[in-house]
Amino acid sequence: MYLSTITRPATSRRGLTLVGGNVLALGTVSLITDVSSEMVTAILPMYLVLGLHVSPLAYGVVDGVYTGATAVLRLAGGYLADRFRGRKAVAGFGYALSAVAKLGLLAAGRSMTAFGVVIAADRLGKGLRTAPRDALITLSVPQEALGRAFGVHRMMDSIGAFLGPLVALAVLAASAESYDAVFVTSFCIAVLGVLVLVLFVREQRTVTVAPPAALREALALLRDPPVRRLAGAACLLGLATVGDGFVFLLLQRREDLGIAWFPLLAVGTSLAYLLLATPLGVLADRVGRLPVVLGGYVALAGTYLLLFGPVGGWPLLVLALGLYGLFYAATDGILVALAGPLLPERLRTTGIALVQTGQALAYLVSSVLFGLAWQTFGPETASRLAAAVVVLAIGATLVVLRRRTP
């Protein structure tokens, strides 16, 4: 439809790398940024629930805000990146905003209101940067290598998620358990990630005779049946997902783990993600991306059932964290790889943001409802209800995406 020629990325030249230098540079940015963000994420449930003694419902609201409340801004970031053809600039602003927000945690103290505002600012940055970053990846490799590219990127991202809690533990140990020291260190690491983006990530330039994307074209994306179906499926799957903090808190309660062990639960999940992201990305390119994504949600249902199943002790921790990491490895980047070929290049960022926004808003609803179910019916019933919702979401997704999906 649009007369455009995309400059071929380095992936077409075997002499460089399997996925190209731009994907590796973006992966490095995500690795460094995830070290920073996971330092905070690893201690957040412990700080709020075990330290400030907030209720499960209140934690569900905070967790939903952390992931979903600023989701609509993904659309704004995606549209601006497409409209002005500045994906790197929008992503860079998002990374920088999240870095600055880490300093705000120092001033928040024990105030839940201030804490919520700072978290919202941090997530605003994430909302702005995610779609432009993922669009840069889709434009940096051929379509047939998207699964592998996202697998490599998510693998590098998960290395940061693996290291972040360990760095947080090291800082706490060296600073006599000072949370302020964790926040300052997190800020410094986030700044390094922004510098790597500025210096090493390249904007993928296109030669086109089409005008910049207009707002009416962006709004019209949902009139395209394949895009509308995928966005609907993303919402269904988002409703089936509860926050990491809930899973880790339930494991901590089930096994009566000491506070010092709590951040290591995130490390176990990240390790499984790290090991599986690239193989599952390659598998998705070979057998189809939709089967791999739905297989990931089967693993999620298994995780929820294990939380109050017959298995206990170390076998429970290994199985639950392994399945949880498998869920992320099979779904995080591969869902975006599903979206990439369905979207025109000039609206690629907006379309990805549309899918991610629907999923994130659904996640916000899911976290609040899970917190309410925990508080009303107890954690065991809430976990089993969550597993049932996952099964229903898998079936509904198969119906919605009944036509062939890449």
UniProtKB/TrEMBL annotation:
The chain crosses the membrane at residues 16-37, 57-77, 158-176, 182-201, 230-251, 257-276, 288-308, 314-339, 360-377, 383-401. It is found in: Cell membrane. Keywords: Membrane, Transmembrane, Transmembrane helix. GO terms for molecular function: transmembrane transporter activity. GO terms for cellular component: plasma membrane. Its main location: membrane. It is a multi-pass membrane protein. The keyword Lyase does not apply. SUPFAM superfamilies: MFS general substrate transporter. This is Major facilitator transporter.
